[in-house]
Design brief:
- By secondary structure, this protein is α/β, with parallel strands linked by helices.
- It has five helices and 15 strands.
- A hairpin with a 4-residue loop joins strand 14 and strand 15.
- Helix 1 packs antiparallel against helix 3 and helix 3 packs antiparallel against helix 4.
Amino acid sequence: MESKFKTIICDAEAVVARDPATQSKFQAFLLSSGLHAVICYRFCHWLWCKNWRLTARFLSQVVRFLTGIEIHPAARVGKGFFIDHGMGVVIGETSEIGDNVTIYHGVTLGGTTVFDATGKIVQKRHPTLKNNVIVGAGAKILGPITVGNNVKIGANAVILHDVADNMTVVGVPGHIVDKSKSRPEAFSAYGACALDKDPIECQLKWLEKEIAKIKKSEN
């Protein structure tokens, strides 16, 4: 139980460190609906592991009703987990989340049905997020894919394939952006950095310039 208590304290410290609106752990415990959901998840996960699965599912649904955050009690979540704002977050049954991960409102870690070579359904249906991942608001990460360490996923991105370590991904479907050499190393809220360049956006701007040149030469 002591380790569980330390994990919860670490979760509260994560709220203070990554949410400018929260000045103390007391405020985090009192006001952070994301922290409330995470604490309740940890209790439900303990019940799930003790084979009190119906009770765990029932309590997780109560928490969903109260906070708008749905975390399946079978999911595995590391320490320092922070859900900012939280409303509409869905974390599926076989999801795995590493340490110091940040998720914003509207994020879905969703499952897809996958078959192996023999035609049997693979049990792992949901994503794995490694350490220090930031997932922006409204992003959807679908299927048994792996999102590497220190990855940042922009708001409303849809991720369908594995993402290597230290990448920033945006768009639908998700694609990797070109990181600025002067990118700050500090925590990036919503996984966004104004200095990063989207290669697709750059290509569209280049095409616009080429079209303008062609039109000008025709006149």
